[in-house]
UniProtKB/TrEMBL annotation:
It comes from the Bacteria. One of its GO terms (molecular function) is rRNA (cytosine-2'-O-)-methyltransferase activity. This is Ribosomal RNA small subunit methyltransferase I. Catalyzes the 2'-O-methylation of the ribose of cytidine 1402 (C1402) in 16S rRNA. The keyword Membrane does not apply. Residues 4-204 form the Tetrapyrrole methylase domain. It is found in: Cytoplasm. The gene is rsmI. Keywords: Cytoplasm, Methyltransferase, rRNA processing, S-adenosyl-L-methionine, Transferase. It holds the Pfam family TP_methylase.
Length: 248
């Protein structure tokens, strides 16, 4: 039976391509790719000659229909994005949703994901974490988004564009406090890979002092708020409800 395969690609180092991803990409009838021009060199490198189709979550309905009709016609389809795991701050949701609705099996191939790679090396609690993806680009909206996370006790994971990194780390120091521990995971699996753990205030200074840190791709991780703050918030909420009952 045909299936929709969700296939990860490397986030920098081609040696991270998993063998099963290569096998699947070689054997399916169609590859739905975020950007065909971007993926072509990788596919060529692994001698993958499968036809491609460009897919984005904003693509025309006809693109999703073409993927579905390929699947319903008995051919399997693989979904890839530019780098890492599709659907993780990347396109794919609409296709996976449509496949489930049509009763087509969806098969994930595990592999590279910047957020998980960064978390595994961050030395921050990893038993529970929140993946926040990209913060809003506008500074006021970003500030509001950070404020909403101030009492979150789980480790926070963000993707950030290099040109906004410094401003974001400064904003985090302001909102979460400059003593809160954070980790910058930059250029993971690449030549200039850097994993740096420091309090937010110190991290901001370090990034400001070295413009090389404002280049390439990065993941930011922030230690969660101490549980005590959550307990205090819960206590404040309990008292608020008690008072509200008493008010006319
Ligand atoms: N789907 C991808 C994944 O599984 O990680 C993420 C795609 S998202 C559009 C791209 C963002 O992921 C970058 O802006 C950066 O925040 C992060 N990223 C991707 N590759 C990275 C790398 N090698 N090192 C650090 N961060 C990376």
């Amino acid at each position: 039976v045909s299936a929709l395969y969700i296939v990860p690609t490397p986030i920098g180092n081609r040696a991270d391509m998993v063998p099963r991803a290569v096998e699947v990409l070689q054997s399916v009838g169609l590859i739905a790719a975020e950007d065909m021009r971007h993926s072509r060199p990788l596919l060529q490198h692994f001698a993958i000659e499968t036809p491609m189709l460009a897919y984005h979550d904003h693509s025309d309905e006809r693109v999703v229909e073409r993927v579905l009709s390929t699947l319903q016609g008995g051919d399997s389809v693989a979904l890839i994005s530019d780098a890492g795991t599709p659907l993780i701050s990347d396109p794919g949701y609409r296709i996976v949703d449509a496949a489930h609705s049509a009763g087509i099996p969806v098969i994930p191939i595990p592999g590279a994901c910047a957020a998980i790679a960064a978390l595994s090396a961050a030395g921050l609690p990893s038993d529970r974490f929140c993946f926040e993806g990209f913060l809003p680009a506008k500074s006021q909206a970003r500030f509001t988004a950070l404020q909403a996370l101030v009492a979150e006790s789980r480790t926070l994971i963000f993707y950030e564009a290099p040109h906004r990194l410094l401003e974001t780390v400064k904003g985090m120091a302001e909102v979460f406090g400059s003593d809160r521990i954070a980790v910058l995971a930059r250029e993971v699996t690449k030549m200039h890979e850097t994993i740096r753990r420091a309090p937010l205030g110190e991290l901001a200074e370090w990034i400001a002092a070295d413009s090389n840190q404002q280049r390439g791709e990065c993941v930011l991780l922030v230690k969660g708020a101490p549980q005590r703050q959550q307990a205090l918030d819960a206590e404040a909420e309990r008292i608020l409800y008690l008072l509200m009952d008493e008010l006319p």
